[in-house]
Amino acid sequence: LTVLNAGRRYLKAEDLSGKVFVTSGLGGMSGAQAKAAVIAGCVGIIAEVDEAALLKRHKQGWLMEISNNLDHCIARLKDARRNKIALSLGYHGNVVDLWERLVYELDTTGELLVDLGSDQTSCHNPFSGGYYPVQLGFKEAKQLLSTNPGKFRTLVQESLKRHVAAINRLADKGMFFWDYGNAFLLEAQRAGADVEKRGANKTEFRYPSYVQHIMG
User: Fold this and answer.
1) C-alpha to C-alpha distance for 125 and 118, rounded to whole angstroms
2) Burial label, 170 (beta-carbon count in 10 A; 0-12, 13-18, 19+)
3) So what's the pLDDT on residue 211?
4) If DSSP states are collapsed to H, E and C, what string results for the chain?
5) How many structural domains comprise the chain?
6) CA separation (Å) from 43 to 2, 59, 126, 201?
7) Is residue 38 within 8 Å of residue 65, measured between CB atoms?
8) Any idea which GO molecular function terms this record carries (predicted)?
9) Positive or negative torsion for Cα 38, 40, 42, 47
10) Which of 39, 50, 69, 156 is the most exposed place for a label (fewest CB within 10 A)?
11) Could you list the residue range(s) of the whole structural domain that residue 148 is in?
């Protein structure tokens, strides 16, 4: 319902075939995102750093494909988008790399490859394993978390700023991004990312919440 309503409200579209939804998280509640994309008929690319979560969703049949190669992900995205095929593709890697690759595609080809975007990393708990920084691989990040939590925190905040910068670039060209109630925008703001709404007070963000703006 969230994906469908986002399409209705922001894309003015009842049919999401050929539309692309990019997000992250295939653990607990976020694991439903892959199936939601296919039910809605769009192309869903979902990033996940934990291979165990990816394999679990794939085994359950909730996730159609898995890849750790961004070139392959972009090729599959373009093919499914062009042919209007419903697809859920799990990218085994950091979502910041995925967002930045989409910016690269925009900058080099002029093509905006994503229509809808969100995030379901566990940003309510970003410094204890809920969000992994793009600067490190999953295992290295877990090790740093246990040996030097202060450094881990710094890297997470740097990663959040890169994360938002890429989203802002794509949103400026027409992608519609929303907050999925995971404290992503709040933690990004605390990290110093550009998420505040222009001309509003500091408690308002430039991107809407799914509760009020989409489900409401």
Assistant:
1) 17
2) buried
3) 77
4) CHHHHHHHHHCCCCCCCCCEEEEECCCCHHHHHHHHHHHHCCEEEEEECCHHHHHHHHHHCCCCEEECCHHHHHHHHHHHHHHCCCEEEEEECCHHHHHHHHHHHHHHHCCCCCCEECCCCCCCCHHHHHCCCCCCCHHHHHHHHHHCHHHHHHHHHHHHHHHHHHHHHHHCCCCEECECCCCHHHHHHHHCCCCECCCCCCCCECCCEHHHHHHC
5) 1
6) 15, 19, 28, 35
7) no
8) urocanate hydratase activity
9) negative
10) 69
11) 1-215
Integer Cα distance of 141 and 130 in angstroms: 12
Least confident range from 2-6, 25-29, 102-106, 148-152: namely 25-29
- Residue 186 to residue 184: CA distance in whole angstroms: 5
What dihedral angle (degrees, nearest 10) is formed by the CA atoms of 8, 12, 16, 18?
Answer: -160
- At 140, the amino acid letter reads E
- Give me the count of residues in the chain: 216
Name beta bridge partners: 209.
Answer: 179
- C-alpha to C-alpha distance for 15 and 1, rounded to whole angstroms: 13
Residue whose pair of structure tokens reads 């996730």 in the numeric block: 63
pTM to 2 decimal places: 0.95
Kindly report, residue by residue over 110-145, the tens digit of the pLDDT.
Answer: 999 999 999 999 999 999 999 999 999 999 999 999
Closest by CA position to 95, among listed 174, 186, 33, 4: 33
Which residues on neighbouring strands pair with residue 88, listed in sequence order?
Answer: 44
Report residue 186 as tokens: 């709040």
- Here the CATH number for the domain that contains residue 140 is 3.40.50.10730
